[in-house]
Amino acid sequence: MSKIRLHRVLPFSKRLISETVLSGETVVDATAGNGNDTLFLAEQVGAAGKVFAFDIQEAALVATAERLGELTVRTTLILDSHANVDQYVNEPIGGAMFNLGYLPYADDKTIVTKPDSTITAIHKLLGMLKKGGIITISVYDGHEGGKEERDALLEYVKTLHQADVHVIRYELLNQRNNPPFLIAIEKVRDFVEVVQISNLEFK
C-alpha cells in the first residue's frame, strides 16, 4: 500500500505541531472541545511541559478531562474565552491549535467560535509564540456564522507582514459537505506587534 502524503486537514495540523513543539514547552489548545487536540498536545510536551486548554462550555472541559486521564496533570483547563489567553499564560509558547466552529456532538450547535474573539486570541498568541513556532487553525464554514468568521480570519492573516510570519492555507479541493481547511502561521522572527487589530472590523 502506498504511503499517503496529502493528509486530511486535522492530521496535517498535528503533523505541523509535532515538527515544531518540543518536550518541556508550554502550548495552548485554544478550543478544547472534546479533548482530542489537548491530549495530542499533552503527549507532545511530555512530563515537563504544560498545556493550557480553553473552552467556554463546561461540558467540553469535562469531556477533555476524561479523555486526558492521568495526563490531566500536564494540563490547565480554563473555562473562559481564548481571547483572554494573556490573563492565564505569561510565558513563551511552543505552539497553539484552534479547531473552530461548534462543539462536536453538542446538543446546542448555536454556541460557536466568533471572529472577534478568535482573531484577538491569535493576535495575542503570536506575541507569545517562539520563533519557529506554529499556530494551526482548522476552519469550518458550513455552520451559521462560519462564513463570516472565515472571511474575517482570512482578512486578518493577510495583514501579517511576510517578514514576521509565513501563512499557508491547506485544503483538499475534492471533498464534499463543507470540509474544513487549515490556516497555519509560522513565526519567523521576534516582534512585539503584528498588526493593529483595532483597525479591523469584525462582522
Automatic annotation (TrEMBL):
Spans through the membrane: none
The record, for Gene3D superfamilies, names: Vaccinia Virus protein VP39
Name the domain of life. Answer: Bacteria
Do the record's keywords include Transferase? Answer: yes
A GO MF annotation of the entry reads:
methyltransferase activity
Key words of the record: Methyltransferase, Transferase
Where in this chain does the entry annotate a coiled-coil region? none
Swiss-Prot/TrEMBL GO biological process terms: methylation
Q: Which PANTHER family does the record associate with it?
A: S-ADENOSYL-L-METHIONINE-DEPENDENT METHYLTRANSFERASES SUPERFAMILY PROTEIN, TRNA (MNM(5)S(2)U34)-METHYLTRANSFERASE, CHLOROPLASTIC
Protein known as: Class I SAM-dependent methyltransferase
